[in-house]
Amino acid sequence: MDTVKHEDIIRKIPPLAPRGGKGDTTTERRDCVHRYSKVHQGSVNCLAPSQQKHTVVTAGGDGNATIFNYSTGKVQAYMRHDGKAVTALENAPLINGVVTGCRDTNVRLWNGTTATLFPGHSLVVTAVVITPDNTRILSGSRDNCINAWDIKTGKLLYSIAESRNLITAMKLIPNENILVQTSEDKRVRLWDTRNLQLIHVYPTKHYIQTCCDVDSTGNCIVTGSNGFNGSGCEVSLWDVRSKKLLGDLRGNEQGVNCVKFLSNSSGNVVISGSKDSLVKLWDISKRECILEKRLPGMGCITDLISYPDGSVMCSTMNGCVLLTLDDRNMITETVCF
To answer: % helix / strand / coil in the chain, to the nearest 5?
Structure first.
């Protein structure tokens, strides 16, 4: 892959006017952060992009999912789960809905504030995705099962159980009928989405594989690893075609909870969030960290969304933060809620 140029991933921000005299730049930038009331009581577990401008779908440990406008600070919709934590989330713009997975073992398809229930798992649902043709929901759980649901009829089409496969995350490979899935058994698996047949199992890692993403070409998978005190805690790159491990990105001291390819980097930059509140940007061609930002007081980073303009939304144990790559090659907080 080509070496990434920092200027290609930086969102240019107009200079800020001083507030009352010559204050330093740090103060001026901090004053510009928009701080709204917390959307969730407690942890925000996962995020999904919304088709509406300046909005994001959030899901929390308080049993609520929301559609939140971070420009106005207003919640546009609440999706309530009877107090049970929402643990998985996917936006479905082509069918005008939101899919959630819940600690109550159910999958739900929301149209506004009305939900269609898909019961079938026996333990907490940890991952949900929608097939590109918008006909099926695929869900993964700690019960070792991946289920395929017909969206129109609500019927369970397939259910595949794999021993010790406690699913942590799932992602579809673009333009292929392939599902990537990470697990607490330290493995990364590929499945055929048409019949849930196992395609490939990558070599076992030393720690739980907690999260995954796929680049826009569908050729490269990135996963995050659990760990502690610098042991494990790596970001791993996997080749889809050769079915091989490409390499590991090391430097985190605590487990990696979420990874994403940066949207405007042509697959050259991966962003990760870890248990010690640290966001890192990695140049995967050089195998090195190029930028990092700690979020003091926010606790574990639980999920990330990358936007085409270079900004990144983070969910944490204590709210959400919108980060922007500014014209000084720094990661700056712009919105907190």
So the answer is: 5, 50, 45
Task: Tell me which fold the domain 33-161 belongs to.
Answer: Methylamine Dehydrogenase; Chain H (2.130.10)
Using DSSP's 3-state secondary structure scheme, residue 317 falls into: coil
The one-letter amino acid at 300:
C
Instruction: Going residue by residue through the chain, which has 337 residues, state the pLDDT in tens, using 9 for 90 and above.
Output: 444 444 444 333 233 233 233 333 233 344 589 999 999 999 999 999 998 899 999 999 999 999 999 999 999 999 999 999 999 999 988 888 999 999 999 999 999 899 999 999 999 999 999 999 999 999 999 999 999 999 999 999 999 999 999 999 999 999 999 999 999 999 999 999 999 999 999 999 999 999 999 999 999 999 999 999 999 999 999 999 999 999 999 999 999 999 999 987 888 999 999 999 999 999 999 999 999 999 999 999 999 999 988 899 999 999 999 999 876 678 999 999 9
Residue 201: HSE in the Cβ half-sphere, 13 Å Cα cutoff = 11
CA dist., res. 89 & res. 49, Å (int)? 10
- What is the maximum span of the chain, computed from C-alpha positions, in angstroms? 66
Superfamily of domain 166-337: YVTN repeat-like/Quinoprotein amine dehydrogenase (2.130.10.10)
